[in-house]
Amino acid sequence: MNEVGTNTLGLVFLGGLAASLSACVYPLIPIITAIFGAAQIKSWHKSLFLSVIYVTGMSITYMALGIAASLGGSVFGSYMGNKWFIIAFGCIFFFLGLWFMGILPIKLPNFADKLQVKKNNKILYPLIMGIFSGFIAAPCTAPLFGAVLADIAVKAAENQSIIPGTMMALAFSLGMGMPFILIGGFAVRLPKPGRWMQAVKYFGAAILFTAGFHYFQDLGFDFPPAKAEISLAITGFFIFIVFFILAEPLVDPEMDKTVKKSHVLTFLLIAAFGLFMATSPLASRSSGEIEKSPLSWKTSLEDGLNSAEDKNSILLIDFWAEWCVACHEMDKKLFASDEFIELANKTNVVLVRLDFTDESDNNLNLAQKYDIKGLPTVVITNSKGEKLEDLIGFHSKELSLSELIKFFEKHAGKK
């Protein structure tokens, strides 16, 4: 199982919290809390229990959607190297940003009125309300959670696991439900709705635009250049602050007609580009070379087979792609480790790295031949190129090494 970083889960949690603070959700929090009865119960632990039941219902909905995105995400793996797919995905995030700002308003169906569960059912009613909450507040939650689902699908294509997507969806639902737990379970007085919610909306839109810029970066643009990315990151942070303030996030264009949405959008796009520069050092970029490794890697399967035949050895084929985050993680934690280097030298295995960043007929044929369903995948073959074993995904250095040792001991010396 590929683990999701705590930073990723934290950002997704904050995304859910931001969705709950948006204009069409936040005012409903005390109302919904009162409807399912938490506000009418004097015992705080019973109120907390009902609030948790409600948030559990929310989690069921979001986790189900997350699992669906994970299961469907495997089809993205073969397209992630296609520039048109990357452009389309980047445009989706810009569209979601415009949607969140309200520039491209989309009306979604509200299922709240169709609930037939009796309100006097103290457990089932808040659970059902929670399950449908994502649809009740869809106009505000859909853009942010849509972005999360898109990211889940990509991670599923990279990791070949539904666990990361499920965890991300759960984190979003917990962020979304936190205000409900605070007000329902602990009687916390949340701030009154006001202009500050406009700032939340603008900040969420800027985050979505930033994600779009990062997708366009995957087209191969060398910006910001690696040598200057730290200084540009600092500059980008200040650009974000200045232009976010210039967008006047506390002024609602619907209320103040002197504020033009076109100006707001321009300032937010510039602010988002600054945030993109500021966060670029955190993005994973690699030339495809194994760093800090004395091992020799072939880049052609034909060369690897010739070398394996001469050495009477087996092959280890690493199917790799620039867009594959787990591939970069495997590079740093497994292939560059002293343990793997010692194992490779001891077994005299021939190492081959095949770049699947770009979609090509040759790559498609190899994927079909070796039954490659996602990346990273490591395939062990004999000197004739016949598949003996495979290792799908990157779980941990220890587990991967353990599996590879078993493979090498089992097949060492096979032609």
Structural topology:
Elements: H1 6-20, H2 29-35, H3 44-73, H4 83-101, H5 124-136, H6 138-159, H7 163-185, H8 196-217, H9 229-246, H10 261-279, E1 297-298, H11 301-311, E2 315-320, H12 325-335, H13 338-347, E3 350-355, H14 361-369, E4 377-381, E5 387-392, H15 397-411
Can you offer a commentary on this structure?
This protein has 15 helices and five strands. It is an alpha/beta fold and 415 residues long. 43% of the residues are buried. Helix 1 packs antiparallel against helix 6 (138-159), helix 2 crosses helix 7 (163-185) and helix 4 (83-101) runs antiparallel to helix 6. It folds into three domains: 1-190, no CATH class; 194-283, no CATH class; 297-411, Glutaredoxin, CATH 3.40.30.10. The longest helix has 30 residues, at 44-73. A hairpin with a 5-residue loop joins strand 4 and strand 5. It has a five-stranded mixed beta sheet, with helices on both faces. The protein is globular, with a radius of gyration of 25 Å.
Keywords, please?
415 residues; alpha/beta; Glutaredoxin; 3 domains; five-stranded mixed beta sheet; 15 helices; 59% helix
